[in-house]
Amino acid sequence: xxxxxxxxxxxxxASLRLGGFKGNITILGDEPVLPYQRPPLSKAYLKGExxxxxxxLKPAEWYVAQNVNVQTGKRVTSVHPEKNIAITADGEKxxxxxxxxxxxxRNRPLPIKGAGLQNVFGLxxxxxxxxxxxxxxxxxxxxxxxxxxxxxxxxxxxxxLGAKVxxxxxxxxxxxxxxxxxxxTFYDGLHRSHGVDIKTSTNTAKINGKxxxxxxxxxxxGLTLPCDALLVGIGIVPNIELAADAxxxxxxxxxxxxxxxxxxxxxxxxxxxAKRTILPYGHIGRLESVHNAIEQxxxxxxxxxxxxxxxxxxxxFWSDQYDVKLQIAxxxxxxxxxxxxxxxxxxxxxxxxxxxxxxxxxxxxxxAPEFMIAKRLILDGTExxxxxxxxxxxxxxxxxxxx
Length: 403
Ligand code: FAD
Prior knowledge:
FAD/NAD(P)-binding domain; Enolase-like, domain 1; five-stranded parallel β-sheet
């Protein structure tokens, strides 16, 4: 039984069948639609360039052909691992031999008065986007709280659709939580050049409404901004309560080992809800990415099937804003040194991050080869002099031939 019909849940089911699992597989999901990909929600789907059908991770026929019982609109409300039973919101008692938590995460709520007004949105689900889209058209005033990837991707789409966009960020730079000042400065400039008003070091004091609908925001500075729609993109909270209530060890994530096993023998967790040792770094954390959900789904299947641990990949992520593709290899937290390769002014460069002489991460802007090579060097724990990677006179091929 898999709780959560998203990227990790579907990957677990697919890998189980690929690995020869003959038992029943049930996926229980509380959303009303078949499992879908989330990345296009703040990109092509919001822009209207991708229809809903193309979002599905697998077509309806796949579940029939693979004998995977996917149940939508089915919320699990409690789990009893000692009795091998899960109970759903409609009171159904379901048995399992193995249980997988693939419950993902939810939008972090904004702790400000007025956050419950109409036209205040989050961006996590298909429903969220369908509700938001009519409010990002020509001349609408869209305010976005949070200059993380989702906030900035939405800003880029909203500008393309003609909205007036203001981004408010509490930190002193955009993307502060996830990247270096070089990349933050680049994206700040990119958005401003497309007409986005970015206000950093800015706190929102109050969301004001008229007849229950948001119409303006008051900042801590006292400034008032007109607002037809407000998008809150201030991060996520992992869905761990179901597991914690069932006695499974959690700490801002369901704790799992390298095979995605929890502290209870026949219970597993994968994706945004799971917390694990992040290789090749050795620290414990949660990764909120498609790559992580897929990797852990494969680990769960291998553990259930008693197969060797699947080959690990370097963590990776991407973001599309305007005509700029960012590809991120590794996790840059704690880097000691950095070097730029390529040309920032031409929107084609990579920042490489180092710790203990080893390459630990790279942010590659419109630079796919740098991203691909960084993934390999990071996974191998390669010691490579920063100046060498930053030398634009030498081709990347020449440089890495020796490593
Ligand atoms: P989810 O996909 O969230 O699936 C979990 C499912 O479980 C949900 O449907 C949830 O409703 C359901 N559920 C929870 N509790 C219960 C319950 N009790 N009973 C039944 N069902 C339950 N990652 C990238 O790598 N690159 C990107 O560019 C990127 N862009 C993104 C853009 C957006 C707008 C968003 C929201 C995410 C993006 N991500 C991106 C992150 C990526 O989509 C997630 O990391 C990934 O979807 C996690 O998969 P998951 O299966 O763990 O969780």
